[in-house]
Amino acid sequence: MLGICRGRRKFLAASLTVLFVPAITWIYLFAGSFEDGKPVSLSPLESQAHSPRYAASSQRERESLEVRMREVEEENRALRKQLSLAQSRGPSHHHGNHSKTYSMEEGTGDSESLRAGIVAGNSSECGQQPAVEKCETIHVAIVCAGYNASRDVVTLVKSVLFHRRNPLHFHLIADAIAKQILATLFQTWMVPAVRIDFYDADELKSEVSWIPNKHYSGIYGLMKLVLTKTLPSNLERVIVLDTDITFATDIAELWAVFHKFKGQQVLGLVENQSDWYLGNLWKNHRPWPALGRGYNTGVILLLLDKLRKMKWEQMWRLTAERELMSMLSTSLADQDIFNAVIKQNPFLVYQLPCFWNVQLSDHTRSEQCYRDVSDLKVIHWNSPKKLRVKNKHVEFFRNLYLTFLEYDGNLLRRELFGCPSETDVNSENLQKQLSELDEDDLCYEFRRERFTVHRTHLYFLHYEYEPASDNTDVTLVAQLSMDRLQMLEAICKHWEGPISLALYLSDAEAQQFLRYAQGSEVLMSRHNVGYHIVYKEGQFYPVNLLRNVAMKHISTPYMFLSDIDFLPMYGLYEYLRKSVIQLDLANTKKALIVPAFETLRYRLSFPKSKAELLSMLDMGTLFTFRYHVWTKGHAPTNFAKWRTATTPYRVEWEADFEPYVVVRKDCPEYDRRFVGFGWNKVAHIMELDAQEYEFTVLPNAYMIHMPHAPSFDITKFRSNKQYRICLKTLKEEFQQDMSRHYGFAALKYLTAENNS
């Protein structure tokens, strides 16, 4: 501690030198420009009025002073360099005290400490313990509702996790949509020393629905007002953040500011950086009452225990009721009401330095909050324009935001050394399963993939669909990676029903997909397509995991298990809905087979009927799927019979059969041990047969496989002998598991494999 204090004294001395040497120099220069109490002009024009002797003396004095000024400037540069090095090497527990002083507009919440500046900031900490303990949990509350906000909050959380050194407890006030998305995301993210609790935003609507609000955030923009009532009664303090926030520093620095609150200060806020509350933005502009420029509520420090004792709930309600009698509605949601309360009770607020909420909306004074990149703490994209906002440094801010947007979230799963994490049952089970694997096994990586937990973001884009009331609705299910993105528009044109897609992407690719989708009129016009991002991890393509994710998140009673490379025939959606009724799929265990064909042509005049397809088949424009490389996969469909069939017909399971089928949503999942290329669909069809599903071919349905470059996984299968050996081993183990699970009836799968 003594060493730290000595270091701080050196740091303080250097700071004082930088601050006062220029001041003394200018006093000296100023005093030197007086003679006998009268000002002596150094201007060449005025010096001509003096005697030659005086002029010569004055010239020598100026030269001497200029030399001295240059020396002082050199000394200052050296000191600044030493000061910056000391800052970069120094301990990280300054907690927001900086070597720069800020104007009252930027604020520190205490005018006395502002005047004291750096002296008070550094000397007061010498000999004290850090304001935030090493393993102290930092509590963060965020209101999040809907699909877009759920995407935004992920970027915010990434920026917090990137810099953090403390355990975190996120309190998410979320609607049903955001809760489903974020609960799955955090459960599969498995970040150590992070706890998530959800609070039902829909239950809180009645608390604020009486307040008319014109802000684009809607009713959810008012819910920060009721946090004292919503959050646990034993929670004493919390940092409240908007979803459009990006952190550029450790959030512990902001948490430490709570220790600076004095007296009745219970709200930590940054002054609003626009002129909104000054009421001069346009003619007849009439904002809610505010203290000066008002305060922005994108970042709030709440002392919950004191607020409860002050009866905050009653305070803001009475204020809102009174102001609404003349204002009629809020324009900036909760921010208007917070400011009206502060106007009446200014003692409640501790003014945070404005670098804790650099507000990037148009026409703000945000540029006064920072002089260098190191000054930035929190960036707030509080404009409806978001990244398109006007600011002369907006490119820098945009790049910082995009860095976290595209940052690999898997890298944030790092442990906090020295801080014990809460026991996580899922994590413990995973570690136990992995420990049972033999790392010397040549197929270890294959086996390990089965237990890999992939971070998953459900409903990456807006989804809105109510299944048909007649219980015949069918969802098309498929999976894809970035190299098959071009198929999406074509599939949407061929299939008008709901679609559930699992996309295997990196964080950066997910953003490329988002831009691609938002730029597509076809995709943006469809709200019944669920896009579920499964983030890349490991060396294999987890094809069956992707299928399971897509299957799990359908809202219809039936699903069509397809692949992304296939285009369904026009009208297939309606045809399948009729077939579901005709074949009584609701009460029988059937798998309806849609016959598969393929073309080798990248440009195809898609057949509009079965007759047209048969003609193209005869001409050699189309072929039965994989007839020339994998005949066994679809041979049991009996294409010869299909050509003339007018009614559905039953076929029997055979070895390596892998048709595309329509089944009820309660059918078994795909086996995750099969990754990449080989046996992933075969194993699933085998299990359907083991569960006594009846395979029925639809006579007037078809789908066509479109050509594409070979996937990376099929290339590995063909070129890597060990890959093929491991696949064979996994097949044998799967068949043995089937025999143990289904008994004597499953022995046929072993004999069929041996005979094939």
UniProtKB/TrEMBL annotation:
<dbReference type="InterPro" id="IPR029044">
    <property type="entry name" value="Nucleotide-diphossugar_trans"/>
</dbReference>
<keyword id="KW-1133">Transmembrane helix</keyword>
<feature type="transmembrane region" description="Helical">
    <location>
        <begin position="12"/>
        <end position="31"/>
    </location>
</feature>
<dbReference type="GO" id="GO:0035269">
    <property type="term" value="P:protein O-linked glycosylation via mannose"/>
</dbReference>
<feature type="region of interest" description="Disordered">
    <location>
        <begin position="84"/>
        <end position="109"/>
    </location>
</feature>
<dbReference type="Pfam" id="PF01501">
    <property type="entry name" value="Glyco_transf_8"/>
</dbReference>
<keyword id="KW-0808">Transferase</keyword>
<dbReference type="GO" id="GO:0042285">
    <property type="term" value="F:xylosyltransferase activity"/>
</dbReference>
<keyword id="KW-0333">Golgi apparatus</keyword>
<comment type="similarity">
    <text>In the C-terminal section; belongs to the glycosyltransferase 49 family.</text>
</comment>
<dbReference type="GO" id="GO:0015020">
    <property type="term" value="F:glucuronosyltransferase activity"/>
</dbReference>
<feature type="region of interest" description="Disordered">
    <location>
        <begin position="43"/>
        <end position="62"/>
    </location>
</feature>
<keyword id="KW-0325">Glycoprotein</keyword>
<keyword id="KW-0328">Glycosyltransferase</keyword>
<comment type="similarity">
    <text>In the N-terminal section; belongs to the glycosyltransferase 8 family.</text>
</comment>
<dbReference type="InterPro" id="IPR002495">
    <property type="entry name" value="Glyco_trans_8"/>
</dbReference>
<keyword id="KW-0511">Multifunctional enzyme</keyword>
<keyword id="KW-0735">Signal-anchor</keyword>
<dbReference type="InterPro" id="IPR051292">
    <property type="entry name" value="Xyl/GlcA_transferase"/>
</dbReference>
<comment type="pathway">
    <text>Protein modification; protein glycosylation.</text>
</comment>
<protein>
    <submittedName>
        <fullName>LARG1 glucuronyltransferase</fullName>
    </submittedName>
</protein>
<dbReference type="GO" id="GO:0000139">
    <property type="term" value="C:Golgi membrane"/>
</dbReference>
<keyword id="KW-0812">Transmembrane</keyword>
<dbReference type="Pfam" id="PF13896">
    <property type="entry name" value="Glyco_transf_49"/>
</dbReference>
<keyword id="KW-0472">Membrane</keyword>
